[in-house]
Design a protein that fits this description.
Four Helix Bundle (Hemerythrin (Met), subunit A)
Length: 196
């Protein structure tokens, strides 16, 4: 049962309907990526009212530790941002991008903001995507790859200079991601008036 929902069969029915919809449209989904994206967004809206308070509180508490290594600080900041945005965007009537694309989630929020706030959040989103792209990690199939903005969890597999001779990242590279994520958290607090 999804927390925060009524304890009747509504959730089970929704999950069943979403699954049946995916199975029914499976041939079309593979042939038409636009249809797949649209269908997945509609299914995501069914579950948009999922609270992440416990998770956000846990990661926010970790951020208050002043001695976090840069990697843990960056990862914790990004998780905190992602959970906030996944909870906040649907409440504003916005469709939250699927996956872990925090820069795109920030851009989605920015589109709903006026003037200066819009440009500052867009600037932070671009900077965050760029800083993530500066990091090297071990790819899914082995070998060095750059971290993509829509796959920040890959920083868990960072190729750090202490371990790798080539295609590696430094503490300064990781700290720059943490710094931009912290800027995003600070700005979102100001813009939304909410605890991130």
């Amino acid at each position: 049962m999804i927390p925060g929902r009524n304890k009747n069969n509504l959730d089970t029915k929704l999950i069943h309907r979403a699954t049946m919809c995916l199975l029914f449209f499976r041939p079309v989904i593979f042939l038409c990526p636009e249809f797949k994206a649209s269908l997945l967004r509609h299914i995501e809206l069914l579950f948009a009212d999922m609270p992440y308070s416990y998770n956000r509180n846990a990661f926010r508490a970790a951020l208050s530790v002043s001695t976090l290594p840069p990697l843990l600080g960056a990862y914790t900041s990004l998780v905190t941002l992602e959970l906030f945005l996944k909870e906040h965007l649907p409440r504003k009537g916005l469709i939250c991008p699927i996956g872990h694309d925090v820069p795109e989630m920030l851009k989605t929020l920015a589109r709903s903001l006026p003037g200066v706030d819009r440009s500052v959040i867009n600037s932070i989103a671009l900077s965050l995507g760029g800083r993530l792209g500066d990091l090297w990690c071990e790819g899914v199939h082995g070998g060095p790859v750059r971290v993509q903005g829509d796959k920040y969890p890959y920083i868990r597999y960072i190729r750090h200079g202490n371990d790798w001779v080539d295609h590696h990242s430094t503490d300064a590279d990781v700290a720059s991601v943490q710094m931009v994520a912290a800027q995003a958290i600070h700005r979102l607090k100001r813009v939304t008036g909410l605890i991130i």
